[in-house]
Design a protein that fits this description.
Largest sheet: 5 strands, parallel
Distance between the termini: 66 Å
Strand content: 15-25%
Helix content: 25-40%
CATH class of the largest domain: Alpha Beta
Shape: globular
CATH topology of the largest domain: Rossmann fold
Number of strands: 7
Number of domains: 2
Oligomer: single chain
CATH architecture of the largest domain: 3-Layer(aba) Sandwich
Structural class: alpha/beta
């Protein structure tokens, strides 16, 4: 028989509700599911073009001052690192698909803080061989959840036609060279005249988002804006 004290404690502090970052038990269920000890690094001072974190006194990062990007602008909810990196890693490599709905809550908040008005939501695709290996595309999970929250249609508009090597240690120029030509418009995709929101988990140098946006605009998209859960600080790529 369960003691009344235990029932009362379970009512106040229900077990089984855990922090999405560190797995510590939470006192109550919350919209975001993050405990007080896990501070997510909100992306508050960002480049108005690529959306990556920059010093507070700046408006545009050095890269965007000298580069014409194929998307209108990009935003991310967090600076990539610590807790945000943990969540991305869990979703991408540890089959933590349950994180997508929670992570998309932050992303939807970021979307609503912009003045964007999109017609359709799509995602950065992965190659079919990687899909077979992993079983899912984390960007697609996020995109579908974001689309639901902002009340827009999700559409598969792109496909990864060329399998590319890991780009972790490559700089922006090397990434651009590697990724160019590796995406294509999906057969039958309705792109022409659409304002498209492109979703991915992380924006690092912007090379992947740029190539996807280039394909979308080449196929008639009116505009492309990019939304990610996190982005690497612009200062990390000045060299």
């Amino acid at each position: 028989m369960i003691k009344p004290v235990k029932i009362f404690r379970e009512f106040l502090y229900p077990s089984g509700i855990k922090c999405i970052v560190c797995d510590a038990e939470l006192e109550k269920d919350t919209r975001y599911g993050v405990c007080p000890n896990c501070k997510l690094p909100y992306n508050e001072n960002y480049c108005t073009v690529c959306g990556r974190a920059i010093p507070a006194q700046n408006i545009i990062c050095d890269t965007c001052k000298n580069t014409v990007l194929p998307f209108e602008s990009a935003r991310s909810s967090f600076v990539y690192g610590d807790a945000s990196a943990t969540l991305v890693h869990k979703l991408k490599y540890r089959n933590a698909r349950y994180l997508a709905p929670v992570m998309s809550e932050f992303m939807a908040d970021t979307y609503f803080s912009t003045e964007w008005n999109v017609d359709a939501v799509t995602c950065v695709p992965i190659h079919k061989s990687r899909m077979r290996q992993r079983g899912y595309n984390q960007a697609e999970l996020l995109a579908r959840e974001v689309a639901t929250r902002i009340k827009k249609d999700y559409s598969e508009l792109l496909e990864k036609t060329v399998k590319t090597k890991n780009m972790v240690k490559l700089n922006r120029v090397q990434r651009m060279e590697l990724i160019r030509g590796s995406f294509g418009a999906k057969f039958g995709a309705e792109i022409c005249g659409k304002k498209i929101l492109l979703i991915d988990d992380v924006l690092t140098t912007g090379a992947t988002a740029s190539e996807c946006a280039r394909v979308l605009t080449a196929n008639g998209a009116e505009s492309v804006n990019v939304l990610t859960f996190a982005s690497v600080a612009a200062t990390a790529w000045l060299a």
